[in-house]
Amino acid sequence: MTLGAWRHPVAMSDAGPRASQLDGLPGDVGGLAKTLQGLLIHEHMPDFYGVTLSDRQRGEPHVRGARQILERIAAHDPRSLGEARPPGERFACCCRHYTLMHVAMLRNRRIAARARCGFGAYFTKDMFIDHWVTEYFDDAQRRWVLVDAQIDGRQREKFGIDFDTLDVPRDKFLVAGDAWRLCRDGKARPQAFGVLDMFGLWFIASNVIRDVAALNNREMLPWDVWGGMTRVDAEVDLDFIDRLAELTHEPDRHLADLRDAYDDQRIAVPPTVFNAVLNRPEALSI
After folding, report:
1. Would the pTM of this model clear 0.85, i.e. be above it?
2. Mean of pLDDT over the chain
3. Which of 128, 49, 56 shows the shortest CA–CA distance to 92?
4. What does DSSP say about strands 193-195 and 173-175: parallel, antiparallel, or unpaired?
5. Contacts of 269 (CB under 8 A, 6+ apart)
6. CA 28-123-35 angle, 5° bins
7. Is residue 156 within 8 Å of residue 138, measured between CB atoms?
8. What is the bridge-based pairing of β-strands 113-120 and 173-175?
9. Nearby residues of 33 by Cβ (< 8 Å), 6 or more positions away
């Protein structure tokens, strides 16, 4: 098993000169998740904590890299990352930021970890909502484990979550490729997968591409659009996504193929992507 491919911070997960901020934090998976819960707040959940996002916070979800996130946190509050901020003072983000930072922290400790893009079954009844989680390798158990670093006690209560979010069952979070395979096999409805008013096979296909990019250390924003992504089901290359779904089901068995797949312009993240939330192209700095 090629665990070395996942033990070191790369590109988006590389904190660079800010890596020293991670020193002194907990050394375990759950402790790091709890640390993040005291630093970040989901942009769509401030009401869970009785706060309103500031103008500063409203722009933060579009920050992409771990180094830039740490810079923003330190600029607003230079205290140690181990000191939880009040909810109204936290860095505003989405699930992908919790995951990226968790991966960055784990890799900083040489724990094999990677970001996975897919769908959570624990937010809305009978629906699979666009979501990101951490996947890390538990050396003691010799297996990959899914962790939702975003879910704190408040969210657990709000969403009625009754399982261990440090070991998310594979039927509670579906990696995008697995969601695709279920729909292609007629075992799930494509219209049950997505977010807000965006659901369907095209959405799942886009997340498969995002997951392949993440497995190549390009953990993009959930609303970054590039390459082979489309909003029309009929334009999805079914055979192409079938192949990617197969590769992402067991990334360790297909690492070389995943690397080769990333050479395809439909997957490779270009220097400029389209931010679908801000409705504009954006040049990448990483």
Report:
1. yes
2. 96
3. 56
4. unpaired
5. 213, 218, 220, 224, 226, 227, 284
6. 25
7. no
8. antiparallel
9. 102, 147, 149, 165, 166
CA distance 20 to 213: 27
Closest by alpha carbon to 172, among 201, 151, 143? 151
- Residues 25, 82: contact at Cβ < 8 Å? yes
d(CA 54, CA 245): 39
Residue with tokens 């709000």: 158
Residues 6+ apart with CB under 8 A from 143: 137
Q: Are 133 and 146 in contact (CB under 8 A)?
A: yes
How far apart are alpha carbons 220 and 205 in whole angstroms?
15
How many residues belong to the chain?
286
| pLDDT for the residue numbered 96 | 98
CA-based end-to-end distance of the chain: 28
| Residue 83, burial from CB neighbour count under 10 angstroms (0-12, 13-18, 19+) | exposed
> Tokens 């993440």 correspond to what residue?
214
Dihedral-angle region of residue 38 (phi above 0 means left; psi in -120 to 50 means alpha; beta otherwise):
alpha
Low-confidence residues of the chain, pLDDT below 50? none
pLDDT at 1: 56
Task: Give the whole-angstrom CA distance, residue 26 versus residue 42.
Answer: 22
Token pair for residue 140? 């003691």
